[in-house]
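Protein kinase domain-containing protein
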Amino acid sequence: MSGHVVEPPRCGTVDMTDVDAITDRMMTVSIPASADSRNTAQDQLCTGNLEGESVATQLKELNSQSAVMQGGLESRDEAHLTFREVENSGPATSPVPFEPPSYLNATRAEEVLVYDENTKEHFVAKNVLFAKNKDSDGEESVSRQRDQRAYWKLPNKAPIETRMGHLEISIVLKRCLRNDDTDTEDEKDDSEEEDDIVFLLTDQRVAVKVNYCDRMERSLHLNAENPLNEIAAQKIVGNDHPHVLGVIEVLYDGENLNVVMPYCGGGDLFDTVDEYLRSHPGEFGLPENKARYWFRQLLQGMHHLQRSGICHRDLSPENVIITGESCLVIDLGMCLRIPFTSRDGNDGMVTDVLCGITRRLITPQGQCGKRRYMSPEIWRNKDNFDGFFIDVWTAGMILFFMLTGQTYLQPFDQIFRCVTTDLPGLLKYWNMNLSHNAVDLLRGLLAVDPKSRLTLGQIMAHPWVTG
């Protein structure tokens, strides 16, 4: 960050034996949820009568059937539940395990023939990834589906290293038969020979996250980041929401698990704030209208995650990527699948958002995420927590960062104490002028006690957000 770190004033200490005393000034409004009722479609889903559909498709259909919206939220929506209501729904439990992600068998061809419609010429592309299927006799062969795609790694673009492998930018190739190339001299009759298959060059790009299977196996239980859970979560959230990055397909090439995702060419939200401060010396953060623009989109992404039963657990400006005039939540490697009380009424049985009735608290799962945005309950790692309310806290710190250019170094340090006990005094000491509504919203987001923290529904209806 180009802006200097501003020293905080001396603020009172946080007495963790009485967090209610800290947050009694912070706004909280209880909006009781309506009585739970699930429609026939959900009954069919939980009994296995809706087959052949993705979880994301099922979620979309179920949500659309009950779409009585107010401020973008349904009348019966998890975003309206307060912490106390979740706490009263049953004993805390572990997160719901993710199902192992499905994938397609694939290959990486050293060379393939590609046709360029613009030049009307063929050329050879190297290192091309594409899926395979099986012939009727069980032998693997190249699929001849005309809508199937392949991915050509950009030859002059260096891969980006990741914890589990690398990320590469690829050009999408569309599979076709050579006799589709009607303008070339090397036409051939339509046949079933593999040599008759070529790829059509397109102008579309994707990002391919290449996870090394040997590295995943060694690292799977060493840290909170789980690439298999990330893939499973991306499949749950789908690929059609404008503010959450989903997955196009997953391909296993015999050595690596390749996750194909939409390509987002911009930087992240941290870069956006940093670049603004570099170009506007003397300013301490984004103007409120700019921060509001990005924050609204972040809230929409969070709402989609909540409706999908997913807690991100690692929200940060670095995990909000900018593409054009839109932003997307990325990096679900540390996410959790929220537990819900089973429909059979047995408190000991939990399930996911599709088949559950009421959301449950989660038992401590260890410290997770970036310290500058980590919620106090995750930092302490002693209390049962609600997955959605820890994401609300991190969203509050993201907004605080956008508006002030500052964060604390870790929970319960000096800046943290000032933010949570005397935010107006801290801003005055820093000579930062924020609107009354902005300060009011930040205080509701950054309540140390999650019982006093705003719900996502209350945030989306807040005057600063709607203004």
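thats it. Residues 13-53, 62-76, 134-144, 181-194 have pLDDT under 50 and may be disordered. The two ends are 29 Å apart (CA to CA). bye
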